[in-house]
UniProtKB/TrEMBL annotation:
Keywords: Hydrolase. Residues 1-22 are annotated as: Disordered. One of its GO terms (molecular function) is phosphoglycolate phosphatase activity. GO terms for cellular component: cytosol. This is HAD-IA family hydrolase. It comes from Baileyella intestinalis. The lineage of its organism: Bacteria, Bacillati, Bacillota, Clostridia, Peptostreptococcales. GO terms for biological process: DNA repair. SUPFAM superfamilies: HAD-like (SSF56784). It comes from the Bacteria. InterPro entries: HAD-like_hydrolase_sf (IPR050155), HAD-like_sf (IPR036412), HAD-SF_hydro_IA (IPR006439), HAD_2 (IPR041492), HAD_sf (IPR023214), PGP-like_dom2 (IPR023198). It holds the Pfam family HAD_2.
Length: 235
């Protein structure tokens, strides 16, 4: 487990300055679901559809939010055990037929990506989603053009919060941890960044989080931001 970093955990924005911000970062890694695109309703509905089929009742949304950022297989094993593969098939079949109706890009994200590109930053996508749907969503929303490297759960043996996903992205892009920042909405994103020695930024525009998940040094974000444009003042 990493030692707690020297950067203070702050809310970026609001004061109009970036006091306490790290030096300019060339490489900016983004999580996908819950950070770039809003799949929250799709994911919650897919879980509830699967719970109803296998358990006969719905679970709390907070339980579902607790799985965000983890690979689907790991989450499904926790709930469905030996029936995890069947549950995953049910979940994915539901998503295949309904994602276009509910998925959207978070407001301000496309403008943020464009501005970072205009500044000459190198943008990376690091997600626990499978590659086929990641690429399908990127192309559907015309976002693929912004990212020099895309790392999905198909590309690594270890997954967030292990550092391998972001380290692989940096290796492919020619970057180093000290030149980088990672932006995400879950403890898995924060842990991945912290374990890699990358500045971690937790976003607050996605879904409710349980503060208990962010109390240990491994999962404590260096910064929090409330709006996409806050990142521009921070880095």
């Amino acid at each position: 487990m990493n030692q707690e970093k020297t950067f203070p955990e702050v809310q970026a924005g609001g004061s109009g300055d970036n006091g306490g911000a790290p030096p300019r970062k060339q490489f900016v890694a983004f999580d996908f679901d819950g950070t770039v695109i809003d799949t929250n309703k799709l994911i919650v509905d897919s879980w509830q559809h699967t719970f109803l089929k296998f358990h006969g009742y719905r679970h709390s949304e907070q339980e579902i939010y607790g799985t965000f950022g983890e690979t689907l297989y790991d989450s499904m094993k926790d709930f469905f055990h030996e029936k995890a593969d069947e549950a995953i098939a049910c979940y994915r079949e539901y998503q295949k037929d309904s994602w276009r109706e509910s998925v959207r890009v978070f407001p301000g994200i496309t403008g943020l990506l464009q501005e970072l590109e205009n500044q000459g930053r190198t943008l990376l996508l690091v997600t626990s989603r499978l590659k086929p749907t990641t690429m399908e969503y990127l192309e559907h929303f015309d976002l693929k053009r912004f990212f020099k490297v895309v790392i999905t759960s198909n590309d690594t043996k270890a997954h967030k919060p292990d550092p391998e996903p972001v380290m692989m992205a940096l290796a492919k892009a020619g970057g180093r941890p000290e030149e980088s920042v990672m932006v995400g909405d879950t403890r898995f994103d924060v842990g991945c960044a912290n374990n890699a020695g990358v500045v971690s930024v937790l976003v607050n525009w996605s879904h409710p989080v349980d503060e208990k998940d962010f109390q240990t040094p491994e999962f404590r974000p260096d910064f929090r931001i409330g709006k996409p444009e806050d990142l521009l003042r921070l880095i």
